[in-house]
Amino acid sequence: MQKHYSHKIFSIALSFLVLASTVSFTIEKHFCGDVLVDISVFTEAEKCAMEAMEILNKKTCCKDEIDVIQGQNELKFSNFEDLDFHQQEFLAAFTYSYLNLFEGTSKQSNPHKNYSPPNLITDIQVLDQVFII
C-alpha cells in the first residue's frame, strides 16, 4: 500500500516538474524614480499617478522593467533506434518476458462434469452417531 501511494506522489511531482519547466512568464516592474511602485506577474503593472503628469510635462522619471523567463520550448523524445544495440536487446528481452509472465491459463476440462453421486440408502452420520456440533 505504501508503494502505491509513493508511486502516485512521485508521478505527480514529476508531472509538476515538467509543467514548471515548460511554462514561460513575464515579471513586470514599475519604478517611479528609484522607488518600486508595483510588481506584476502575467499581467501589466499598475502605473503611478506621476506618469499621467509626465505626459503633460514631457519629463520621464518613471520607467518599466520587464523580465521574461522563457520555459523550455522542446521536450526530448527518444526513439527505439536512438538506443545502442545492447540497450535494444535488453529492452526487447525484458518486454518479451514481462508479457509472457501474464499469459492466461488454458481452459482445463473437468472430467467429473457429468458425474452423479450414488444414491444413499442410509444416512451414515446417523448410523454411526457422528454429528458436527
The helix-and-strand class reads alpha+beta
Note the overall shape: elongated
Distance between the termini: 40 Å
The biggest beta sheet, please?
Answer: 3 strands, antiparallel
Helical element count?
4
Count of DSSP strands: 3
Strand line-up across the major sheet: 2-1-3
Rg result: 38 Å
Mean pLDDT: 82
Low-pLDDT stretches = none
> β content, as a range?
15-25%
SSE series: HEEHEHH
Can you give the helix content as a percent range?
Answer: 25-40%
Write the layout of secondary structure elements.
Elements: H1 2-22, E1 25-32, E2 35-41, H2 50-57, E3 62-69, H3 85-101, H4 124-128
Protein architecture, described:
With 133 residues, the chain is α+β, with helices and mostly antiparallel strands. It has a domain of 49 residues. The chain contains 4 helices and 3 strands. A 3-stranded antiparallel beta sheet has the order 2-1-3. The protein is elongated, with a radius of gyration of 38 Å. 1% of the residues are buried. The mean pLDDT is 82.
Features:
single chain; alpha+beta; 3-stranded antiparallel sheet; 4 helices; 3 strands; 38% helix; elongated; signal; HYC_CC_PP
In short:
The chain is 38% helix and 17% strand.
